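Annotators were shown the component list below and the corresponding predicted structure, then asked to write short factual statements about the assembly.
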Amino acid sequence: MSEKFTKSMARNIFYGGSAFFFLFFIALTVDTTAKLPERDHRENITEQVVLGKKVWEVNNCIGCHTLLGEGAYFAPELGNVYKRFGNSKEAIIGFIKSRPVDGIPGRRSMPQFNLSDEELDGIAEFLKWTSEINTANWPPNIEG
Amino acid sequence: MQYQSQAVAKPYFIAAIGLFVGQIVFGAILGLQYVMGDFLFPEIPFNVARMVHTNLLIVWLLFGFMGAAYYMVPEETETELYSPKLALILFWVFLAAGVLTIIGYLAVPYATLAQITGNDLLPTMGREFLEQPTITKIGIVIVALGMLFNISMTVLKGRKTAIIMVLLLGLWGLAIFFLFSFYNPENLVLDKIFWWWVVHLWVEGVWELILGSILAFVLIKMTGVDREIIEKWLYVIIAMALISGIIGTGHHYFWIGTPEYWQWWGSIFSAIEPIPFFMMVIFAFNMVNKRKRDHPNKAAMLWAMGTPVMAFLGAGVWGFMHTLAPVNYYTHGTQITAAHGHMAFYGAYVMIVLAIISYAMPLLRGRAAGNSKKAQIVEMWSFWLMTVSMVFITLFLTGAGILQVWLQRINENPMGFMEVQDKIAIFYWMREVAGVIFLIGLIVYVTSFFIGGDEEEASS
Amino acid sequence: MTQSHTKISQYPPGDFAIWIFIYAELLVFGIFFLSYAFARSQNVELFNESQLNLNRISGAINTLILITSSYFVVRAVAAIRENKSLLCARWLLAAIVLAGAFIGIKLFEFISIYSEGISLSTNTFYMFYLSMTFFHFMHVIMGMVILIAVMLKAKQGGYSNEDHTGVETGASYWHMVDLVWIILFPLVYVMR
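Structure shown to annotators:
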């Protein structure tokens, strides 16, 4: 058996198999991106949403929170925070604005980012849009 | 050391260990912030410390991979490196870029860093693990291309072994898939899909090629088993890794807005992802049983044997535990993920880099084969301290995760996130204790480099 | 086992590396089949209803085609064992032509399904139907590439009765592709 186990065949299988499955992965990805508009509701990506995503990124929100389950696990999931806060942009904005500069003694606290009204509106719009993505019914409940 | 130019690996390895220490210090800070929420607040908020922790990990592993490449390539290709000078220049460029980036994270608020580094021109920042300023990312690409040019030119003029071809493919893949970090669409779902082309296709794709090739190299050197046998098993193992791992990317496409068929595709292919790791364990132990010599560097052997075992546990077992879509529906984005991440990264990538350092460093320092017995014993102590404490970190995080899933996701009256965090604080405390022991293990590891004594004789 | 005997009865035939690959592939298909059975048990009505829409005749023809091509591959291996390189290449060519016919019919099937507006996301049945048949379809193409490579080498006299591991390797892979279809066809097209 072992003398009929050759390195060249193992190599062919590695290169051939990898290329095969990578092509297949690309095919699935093409199908996915074609199907995506029905699920992400991209028609609702307004200027505010775009600004909101930028605000989200340049303040490194993902460093504490998860968004659709991805990120750090130090602070609550925000993919559905718009719904958890009673479908209210004002509640989100109010929460971000009211974070104490020096934190809360002994407890975790979100930093005070000193965002402008425009940025606050953007982040709220971004989280609202995110909450409307079709995520196959995830998270299991409103607590995220 | 058979070739003069292998010496360029040394600064890479030293930098890797130095940054590793930094990574673990910040890990300990993070662990404490989990239970003492106001620790170092607002000077070093959690998100900054985490960014330092994860980015240092990536950077020091890259230093390790590059060092490994510069060490292995001349020996495998049987020719001197194309340009040792370029390798040294790139070392300093990469170190400066890395250190400046970390200082940037710590010195100014992240938003300010984004502003002064011109993130608006090409926004790439603020995504998990890809937090580096855009100019740092460009720097990484330049360094990677420079290194690839250097070692590709070396390989072209020398012997082309399977180990080196696999390593080269892994490094090229690393550079190519990193380019997706420059793609940051306004649509979050698209952003996430292609973000995984960097993250998943790195750690469950091309990095496994680098891992396999370093492991095969160390095994050939240490066991003296025939190259043919080791190389053909290398091909089979990495073939299995890519066959399962590429479409296995689908296990990240369950709940981010992607079509639901990924729940099947992702589950089915990631169900076979443990197989290559299991094969790697069998392979490594078989090769050691077939060994034709007893290499005097016992410490390197321990790292090399530990790698597949811990990779199988961390990536294989802990990965499989929550990879099937019906399970992942409840565990996605909890401490279970953190548990898996810690052990998988340690087992697969930290340990392989420490294995090649352990093997190569004594030779780079002009010793015949291994460090003195005394130094090796200290190093082996550090192996057990770090490995066992990592097992406990993983177990405690798993406990935290199970409880979190139960209280927050499955319970009829689900509790809020912060409330649950208080309930599971005991697990975080225990994790922090295990983390401190890991840090002690790391200090022991560093100490082992400064222990002299008579060096071990080389045996043929 | 005597020396002269080992040449023929050595198991498994072909290169051992292809068998690792074959086992891996069978494992993937096997999990797919089990998943299909499980998903079907959750929603029998939907599966039965959607199944009626499939073209069973083209599926049956394709089954015959693949079985026949497998037989041709067997003939090819038998030919090379008698040292008849050209005959071996000719049998392989016949198998490859049939594989091409399979692909043609399958493409026709895919196009008619696609023109009905059916995709992976239509329902769970079509998800499985398209996933498994397309995955298998890609394997037929891969098998064809392998057979073509083996045929070209056989034509140049690259194999002999002493050394024809490559032919056996290609044949083993092709039989796997055939075997999977023989399970896939009744499972997805026929069984209710």
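Statements collected:
1. The two ends of chain B are 15 Å apart (CA to CA).
2. The mean pLDDT of chain B is 96.
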